[in-house]
Amino acid sequence: DSKGSRSYTLRDTLEIVDELNFNSQKAKHELSDLYETRIKRMGNAGRNGGEYYTPRPLIRAMIKVVDPQIGETIYDGACGSGGFLAEASEHLRRDDLSAIEWATLQRRTFYGQEKKSLAYVLGVMNLILHGIDAPSIRHTNTLTENVMDIQEADRHDIVLANPPFGGGERKEVQQNFPIKSGETAYLFLQHFMRKLRAGGRGAVVIKNTFLSNTNGASVALRKELLESCNLHIVLDCPGGTFQGAGVKTVVLFFEKGSKSRSVWYYQLDPGRSLGKTNPLNDEDPKRVRGSPAGAR
C-alpha cells in the first residue's frame, strides 16, 4: 500500500470511531468487530498484524473445549493482538454476573505478555474494546524469564496460546529452559507447562512437526509433556487455517499434574480448501474425525 492509501484507511476508521457512542455496549461491540477486522486484514495483506492473528473460529473452538469459568485466571504469554484473551472474555460474559463476578472478570482474570511493541498496543486496545478496562498485559519478552524461577503465585488455571514458530533463539535465551532449543515454540511450550497450576488446563497451537521430529529437543519435550501433563487431545488443523503462514499446525489440549493416559487424535476436516477467500468459519471445528492415538 502507498502511504496515501494507508492514511485514507486510517481516516475512514477514525471517522467511524468518532461517530460511536462509547457509553453503549452496542457501540463498543461494533468497534471491537471493526478493530478485529482491521487486524485480520493486516494479516491477509502480509503486513504486521498477521503475525499476531489467530483465526477466531479456531480460538473459539479451543476455548469451548477448555471451558474457562469465572474465578479462574487465563494466561497467554505470547498474546499478540489479544485474540485468545478477548474471546475468553466473550465466553465468560453473561448478563447475570454479580458485582463481585464482574469485578473478578475485569481485574483478576486475564493475563498476557507480549514482546513486540505494535502487538502489545494492539492487544491492550483489543481487550479494552471487549470491555476489559484494565487488562494485565505486560510489554516484555516472555522467553527472558527463567522457567525454574516460576513460583506458585505466578501460575494460572488456564493457558491459551499460539506462540510464534521458527525463531532461532539465542543461546542466552535458551539457558532459561531445561530443554535447550532454538525453536521459539519449544521454549514457549516449556514456559506454558510451568505456568499452569496443578489441575490447570492448556490449549496451545504448535507446528505439526512437533509430533514427529526425532531431534533431541523434540523427543525430550514430548516426553516431558506426556509425563507432566495429561495430553488428552491433539487437533490436527488443515493447511490454510493460518492464512499466509503456509504452516501445518496442531492444537495440544492438556491438563497439568497427571501423566498422559490416552490421547485422542482429531482431524479438523472442513471438506474444502481453506484460503484467503475461503477462511475457517465457526461451523468448521464441528467437523472433526477422531480416534484414540494412545500415549506414546
Q: What does this 3D model show about the protein?
A:
The chain is of the alpha/beta class. The protein has one domain (55-292): Rossmann fold. The chain has helices spanning 3-19, 25-44, 56-66, 83-92, 99-107, 117-129, 171-174, 184-195, 216-228, and strands at 74-76, 110-114, 136-139, 156-161, 196-207, 229-236, 249-256, 264-268, 288-292. It is globular. Residues 1-8 and 44-50 have low confidence and may be disordered.
What key phrases describe this protein's structure?
296 residues; alpha/beta; Rossmann fold; nine-stranded mixed β-sheet; 9 helices; disordered N terminus; restriction system; DNA_methylase_N6_adenine_CS; DNA binding
Order of helices and strands: HHHEHHEHEEHHEHEEEE
Percent of sequence in beta strands:
15-25%
Helix proportion range: 25-40%
> Could you report the average pLDDT, rounded to the nearest whole number?
85
Total helices: the number is 9
Can you tell me the residue ranges where pLDDT is under 50 for at least 5 consecutive residues? 1-8, 44-50
**Largest pleated sheet:** 9 strands, mixed
Number of strands: 9
The strand order across the widest sheet is 3-2-1-4-5-7-6-8-9
Q: Structurally, how many domains make up the residues? A: 1
CATH architecture: 3-Layer(aba) Sandwich
- The CATH homologous superfamily is termed Vaccinia Virus protein VP39
**Helix/strand/pairing class, anyone?**
alpha/beta
Overall outline: globular
Rg, nearest Å: 19 Å
CATH top level assignment: Alpha Beta
CATH topology: Rossmann fold
Pfam families: N6_Mtase (PF02384)
Family: Belongs to the N(4)/N(6)-methyltransferase family.
GO biological process, one term: methylation
Keywords: Methyltransferase, Restriction system, S-adenosyl-L-methionine, Transferase
